[in-house]
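Consortium newsletter contribution from the modelling node. Members have asked for a concrete example of what our holo predictions look like. Here is one, prepared for the heme C complex that several groups have been discussing at recent meetings.
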Amino acid sequence: MSGSFFQQLCLAFICYVIAMNAYGADNPPPAGIFENSACIECHQKTSPKLISDWRTSSHASSEPLADCIACHGKLHESTAVTARRDSACIECHGGNKSPVVHSYTTSKHGVLMQLERKSYDWKQPLSGAKYRSPGCSYCHMRGADHNVNNMVRSDLMNVNAVNDVEIETRKVCQDCHAPRYIISLLVSGEDMLEIARKKVREANTLVTQATEDFSNDELEPARKIILTMQKHLKNVYLGAGHQSPDYQWWHGQPALDGDLLRIKGIVGELHRKKSSAIH
Ligand code: HEC
Ligand code: HEC
Ligand code: HEC
Ligand code: HEC
Ligand code: HEC
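And here is the predicted structure:
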């Protein structure tokens, strides 16, 4: 190679800078297949916040473990595209029939995604409405937020648990919808959830009061229904979160009404039997 000493020095310097940045944020990703430990080791240097966010999330300790390759696959060239698609999440979240997934596939977002996903450019990052309809990861990992717990409340029965979550949720929705529409939608979602909670609280109170008069064996059938109510309460929650009218209504409120009626029936029957035994 020809050129002055100065040119060569410059070239060497440029090479040095490139080498020093080889694993830096401005460089093209290395090609190849990597194991999970390699992903973490290298990205600990390039994106330390991302790794610590993932470590804080329930994915880092979930069973099964949602590690880097569970979402991204091992092939680095297609790693972001693989993780952005719904297929990265669905199977591990119980498949198409699980309430978490089904409440999404029965929403307008899920239907649109099904119709249009082949026309989407999956190389686009998940923010700024670069997709027409959001998939699982657009809502739960917008801006590459690897702590999925940031947008999910920890306690369904606690009225205040939603506060921080709601701020995150609004950011996501407002990429595509008007703020006023979203605020009123979230308020009515909370109202709907509170109606559902009232039914669960009423059932709990009935069974707790009945423990003064009846044995555990006698109350066992009512306790079983209380457990089912947790599932139906979750359906209302998923219906509101995933915008599925089916889950808000069919699988949610009427199911809770039925549960509560049956508990009232069981406890009422126990009282009748007891008083007729006394008389
Ligand atoms: C030897 C270092 C190294 C290893 C190992 C590595 N990466 Fe990367 N990766 C990079 C660099 C450098 C980039 C580009 C800069 C950036 O986005 O951080 C990158 C980019 C990415 C991106 C963004 C790609 C895009 O198109 O925007 C994802 C996602 C990713 N890596 C995931 C993984 C996963 C998952 C593994 C393990 C299977 C892995 N990486 C292994 C260094 C590495
Ligand atoms: C639950 C699924 C999931 C898990 C687990 C996961 N990622 Fe990601 N990751 C994604 C998605 C989805 C994106 C695309 C985000 C976007 O486009 O904004 C992404 C983006 C990235 C990026 C690009 C960040 C950027 O700013 O564009 C890197 C780097 C990355 N992931 C590395 C990792 C590493 C390393 C692990 C393991 C510690 C990991 N991911 C675990 C789903 C996941
Ligand atoms: C390898 C399995 C696996 C994969 C892949 C996976 N998850 Fe998870 N995820 C879990 C488990 C297990 C939990 C913890 C139990 C739970 O809350 O459902 C969890 C928790 C979550 C939570 C928090 C729920 C809570 O109550 O704290 C969200 C949100 C979530 N995942 C979304 C996603 C999204 C979006 C994707 C795809 C980008 C994905 N997951 C991929 C297994 C997985
Ligand atoms: C339109 C945005 C959006 C889409 C799309 C979406 N979610 Fe959600 N998801 C939410 C919201 C909002 C909640 C409720 C958060 C809250 O208020 O606690 C939620 C709740 C959840 C939970 C918590 C359930 C629990 O039992 O604690 C999981 C897990 C989850 N979603 C996974 C998924 C998966 C998997 C997909 C794709 C099949 C998906 N989500 C699609 C917005 C979305
Ligand atoms: C990436 C863009 C995008 C994001 C993000 C998004 N949506 Fe949507 N949403 C759409 C599109 C597109 C439609 C379908 C509009 C139509 O009816 O043509 C839709 C439809 C809806 C509908 C149904 C309206 C109807 O007429 O039946 C509701 C409700 C809704 N979104 C709420 C939300 C909420 C709440 C969030 C945040 C958790 C959210 N959306 C996030 C794009 C988005």
